[in-house]
């Protein structure tokens, strides 16, 4: 499981500030965890994170590899807004089954369990999160989510990570145009795989580029595919890859 950093945003302008930046509606904080991203003005992925209300503050649960970038980007947009950003000195706990009193359901998928933020570190989590991510097509920062990603191609709408009624945010115009005016021709898919191939291996169909193999769990994997070329068996190195219908 990747290392997470928990940030704390305080100040009277915090919610309004975030509302103008993130892909989801900040008002959903009143119902539970909010999954969202911040984009470039060109609509490409910068960072994804979870938001949790903590009194008047907002906690931001972000992958450690993106935490410094996110803090820098938030600081760039903050200007004179009454918003302060600090480390929360909390640790992520995750699990399946009944949600504990201090936890909240993962908004991306019921299959992804719950998340809680505690002073102590979690030491006993043996859940195979990769298998769950692959089975339910949940992208991970640094693997399926990269600076080249458009969030609709990696399933953000299905994962409750974008709101098309909330109004403007950075990158909103491109995202809305992809939603309403184009048909996605590329994107995240689940594939069956037979043979040895590592994440990052190019996928070919009939000698033409068809995508990239990403997270793998057993004989299933996530892949970024060109849908028009994924109509039959494909090759990823020495492995045979087949798009799973319905994914």
Q: How do the helices and strands line up, and which of them pair or pack?
A:
Blueprint: E1 4-10, H1 14-19, E2 34-39, E3 45-54, E4 57-63, H2 64-78, E5 84-87, E6 91-95, E7 103-105, E8 114-118, H3 129-135, H4 172-181, E9 186-194, E10 202-205, E11 208-217, E12 220-226, E13 234-236, E14 239-243
Antiparallel strand pairs: 1-4, 1-5, 2-3, 3-4, 6-8, 7-8, 9-12, 9-14, 10-11, 10-13, 11-12, 13-14
Number of helical stretches of at least 4 residues: 4
Question: What is the string of helix and strand elements?
Answer: EHEEEHEEEEHHEEEEEE
Largest sheet: 6 strands, antiparallel, barrel
Q: What is the CATH topology classification name of the largest domain?
A: Gyrase A, domain 2
> What structural class do helix, strand and pairing data support?
alpha+beta
- The residue-averaged pLDDT reads 95
How much of the residues is beta strand, in percent? 25-35%
Widest sheet, order of strands: 9-12-11-10-13-14
CATH class of the largest domain: Alpha Beta
- Using the CA coordinates, give the radius of gyration: 19 Å
Q: How many domains is the backbone divided into?
A: 2
What oligomeric state do these chains adopt? single chain
Amino-to-carboxy terminus distance: 24 Å
How many E strands? 14
Low-confidence stretches: none
């Amino acid at each position: 499981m990747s290392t997470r950093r928990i940030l704390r945003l305080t100040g009277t302008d915090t919610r309004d500030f975030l509302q103008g930046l993130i892909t989801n509606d900040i008002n959903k904080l009143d119902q539970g965890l909010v999954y969202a991203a911040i984009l470039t003005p060109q609509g490409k992925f910068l960072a994804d994170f979870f938001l949790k209300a903590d009194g008047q503050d907002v906690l931001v649960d972000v992958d450690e590899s993106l935490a410094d970038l996110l803090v820098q980007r938030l600081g760039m947009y903050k200007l004179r807004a009454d918003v302060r950003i600090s480390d929360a000195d909390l640790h992520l706990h995750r699990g399946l089954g009944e949600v504990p009193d201090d936890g909240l359901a993962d908004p991306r998928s019921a299959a992804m369990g719950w998340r809680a933020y505690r002073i102590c570190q979690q030491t006993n989590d043996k859940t195979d999160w990769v298998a769950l991510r692959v089975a339910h097509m949940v992208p991970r920062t640094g693997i399926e989510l990269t600076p080249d990603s458009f969030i609709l191609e990696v399933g953000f709408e299905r994962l409750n990570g974008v709101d098309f009624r909330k109004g403007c945010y950075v990158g909103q115009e491109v995202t809305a145009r992809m939603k309403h005016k184009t048909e996605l021709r590329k994107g995240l898919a689940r594939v069956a795989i037979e043979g040895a191939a590592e994440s990052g291996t190019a996928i070919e169909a009939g000698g033409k580029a068809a995508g990239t193999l990403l997270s793998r769990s057993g004989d299933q994997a996530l892949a970024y595919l060109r849908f028009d070329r994924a109509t039959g068996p494909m090759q990823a190195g020495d492995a045979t890859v087949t798009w799973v219908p319905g994914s």
